[in-house]
Structures are given as structure tokens and as C-alpha cells.
DNA sequence: CGATTCTTTGAAAACAGTCAATCTGTGTGG
DNA sequence: CCACACAGATTGACTGTTTTCAAAGAATCG
């Protein structure tokens, strides 16, 4: 299970064996069944997760009990409720598994320690954080400036692996439109 | 001009006089007239800016020549085209002054050096980056889950200083609705 | 004052959401 | 193996919201 993470790391930067061992030693492997939660809103999000296999979503539930997906994660992606993980306050979002899933978890303490001790990892994390912010800004831009149809096409183009794997209503929730609307967009453009 | 920055810093963390001097020495003061650009899309964004007084916006222009505001900045806020500043690639966004404005600028090299040398500042920057990401996620959530009216109220509540100062059409652009719609929302709710 | 710039208003058209019904495929238990 | 349940997807009719276009009404500034 840890091999996937090792492959991921070595593809991204050069780590010594000792460093790899250190990073892995700090990780807690966990298996999640479909629909099982990693965090529920209201709890503190104690972990950041690296996805070995399977998939998860981060979402929030609004006052009408409607769920809105903020983030998907599949193999080799990271996921956490960043605000709760960072501050130690209760999470407003929830994370659950969309399929049977295997993750590696780091507690805040392990994470901070390991970043302090393994400088290459710290640099990698900074890079990923920067890219994550850029992605967030780009998604926000798309949301305030493009139609649902354009956003769907961009989504398909950006995540070709994703959109065949996720049921339509989850993608709709991610894009911020109703399932019916996305269904009509699909029909209209013939893009499945 | 540098005093405003010094006040800002000392309110946020404890810096030695030497550190303050070092941070300030690396900064380039600049005055911008209303409508003057800090970066234009297509150029590389060489600087990160601290706003001493005045205000700016970061925006992108879509294929219909429509402008969409990604970020405002007033006194004591930071602004840059993060993606371009980080990568050195041409910016897709533009930054211009909404009023006559004074900023302090750091080049990427100065910024990285100063973060390496002044550890307290590095920690502060990490904290700000984390909060910035959280704000971005929260705004995205609001955009995909709330109506324009709810978003306007949240905006007014979150930035009470802002919304009297910015013309309506800029706020509309920030919220992702047409000026007419925001005008009607205002009329409808009586919230100006 | 005249010229921008900004805001409001009205009417029509485009768009997306809701509700309800139906259709599809998948998998489970009898 | 079939019947049934279930989750997901589609469709139609309707409602409501937002945009668009065009015009006119403030406000501000030289």
C-alpha cells in the first residue's frame, strides 16, 4: 500500500531512502468502504490523506440539505478539509469515500514534523499548495464567468479520467448545477 | 510610506528592528494613478504588492471582452497574480488601480530571499497563504451553492468597508452577476 | 455647464431549477 | 434464473431567475 506513495514521491523529486522511510513511517494506512466518512462536518479534521486507490469527495451541505462538492480526489491526489486541518477547528465540510478506497493519513503533528525534517518534502508541499491555490482561482473564474455548458466541457477536458468514473449527479454538484440541467447539457452537446 | 507596512507587520508578529529594516529595504515603493496597471494580462507579473493606501483589483477578461474580478485589495491587503508570480509565466489576469494608490513591491527574488532570511516573516506568509486558500474555497462554495442575493449580503457583511467604496458594477463583476441584476437585488432588499 | 461614469428601469428572451414521471442498468435474494 | 429493489439518468411541463438590450436618470468632476 505504501508503494504507491513511494512511486508518487520518487516521480516528483529525489528523496533518499531514509527520507522515504521517514515519510512512510509517519503515515497511517486506512481502508474506507464506499460511503464511509473520513471526516464529518462538525468534527475536527485530524488528517491529511493521500489516495492510494479509490476516490473521495469533499463537500458541504447547505441549509436545504443540498450537497455541494468542493473537491474530488482519486489515486495520487491529496485531500483534507484544509481549514479544519490547519486551524484545529471543527470542519464545515465532510469527506467520504465514493468507492472502496485506500488512503495514507498524516496527523497535523506528523505532517508538520515531517515537513520540518525532510526539506525536499517541504518544498514539494509548498509547490503543491501553490498549484492548488491556482487551480482554485481558475475554478472560481470559470464559475463566475462561464456557462454551465462551458464548465462541463472544461471539466471533461481537464479530468478525462474522472468524468466516466463519477456518476452524473456528482459532477453536477461539483459544477454547481442541478442533475437535470447537466443531463440536458450532455444531450445537447453529445459529450458523454 | 513604509510606516504603514511597519505597523502592519508589528501588529501581526514580533519582528526585530533589523528584520523590519531588512524587509523594508527589499521593497520598492510605487505610486499608481487611478486606472494605471500593475500588470497587464500577457505580461509576467514580477511583483507582489502590499497596499499602503488606495485600492486595486485583479481581474480577467473573457472572450466577450467582459471583465471578471477575482480579487480586490485595499489598505493592508496583498495582491499579485499568484500563478504568474510563482511560475514566471505570463499572467492571464490584469491588476489595475481603482483609485490613486500607493504600494510596496517585492520582486520574486527579493521575496524568496527575505522569506529565507526572516523566519518570522516566512511563518507569517505561510499563515496568510493558508487563510487565503480558505477564503478562496469559501468563496467558491458560496458561488456554487448560494443565490446572487445571498452572496451580496455575505459580501456586505464580510467587507463592510468595501462595498460603499466600490462602484456597484465592480461588485457585480466580483459576485458574478450583471450590474442590472445587482441593482435589482439592492432595490429589492433595501441594502445599500 | 458638459462630459464621463455610474445606476436604475422596463420588456423580452434565454437559462436553470423544480417537480413528477419514466426509463435504464445493476445487483441481490428467493 | 427470475423478480424486485435501488441507484442513477432522462424527459416534459412549469416556474422562477438572470441576462440582454435599450433607454433614461443620477452623480461626479474638470
Write structural notes for this entry.
The structure is a homodimer of 192-residue chains. The first copy, chain A, has a four-stranded antiparallel β-sheet. A four-stranded antiparallel β-sheet of chain A has the order 2-7-4-5. The first copy, chain A, is built from eight helices and eight strands. The longest helix of chain A is centred in the C-terminal third of the chain and has 27 residues, at 119-145. The model of chain A has no long low-confidence stretch (mean pLDDT 95). Chain A has a domain at 2-113: Sandwich (Jelly Rolls). Helix content of chain A is 48%, strand content 21%. Chain A has helices spanning 2-12, 17-25, 82-87, 108-117, 119-145, 148-158, 168-175, 179-189; strands at residues 28-32, 37-39, 47-53, 56-61, 67-73, 78-79, 94-97, 101-107. By secondary structure, the first copy, chain A, is α+β, with helices and mostly antiparallel strands. At the A-B interface, α3 and α5 of A face α3 and α5 of B.
Amino acid at each position: 500500500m505504501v508503494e504507491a506513495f513511494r512511486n508518487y514521491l520518487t516521480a516528483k523529486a529525489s528523496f533518499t531512502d531514509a527520507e522515504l522511510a521517514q515519510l512512510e513511517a509517519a503515515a497511517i494506512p486506512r481502508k474506507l468502504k464506499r460511503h464511509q466518512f473520513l471526516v464529518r462536518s462538525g468534527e475536527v479534521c485530524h488528517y491529511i490523506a493521500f489516495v492510494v486507490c479509490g476516490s473521495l469527495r469533499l463537500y458541504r451541505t447547505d441549509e436545504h440539505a443540498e450537497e455541494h462538492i468542493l473537491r474530488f480526489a482519486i489515486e495520487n491526489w491529496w485531500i483534507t478539509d484544509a481549514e479544519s486541518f490547519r486551524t484545529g477547528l471543527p470542519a464545515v465540510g465532510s469527506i467520504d469515500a465514493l468507492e472502496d478506497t485506500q488512503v495514507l493519513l498524516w496527523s497535523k503533528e506528523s505532517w508538520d514534523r515531517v515537513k520540518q525534517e525532510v526539506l525536499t518534502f517541504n518544498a514539494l508541499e509548498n509547490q503543491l499548495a501553490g498549484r492548488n491555490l491556482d487551480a482554485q482561482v481558475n475554478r472560481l473564474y470559470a464559475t463566475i464567468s462561464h456557462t454551465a455548458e462551458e464548465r462541463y466541457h472544461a471539466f471533461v477536458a481537464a479530468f478525462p479520467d474522472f468524468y466516466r468514473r463519477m456518476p452524473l449527479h456528482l459532477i453536477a454538484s461539483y459544477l454547481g448545477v442541478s442533475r437535470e440541467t447537466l443531463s440536458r447539457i450532455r444531450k445537447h452537446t453529445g459529450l458523454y
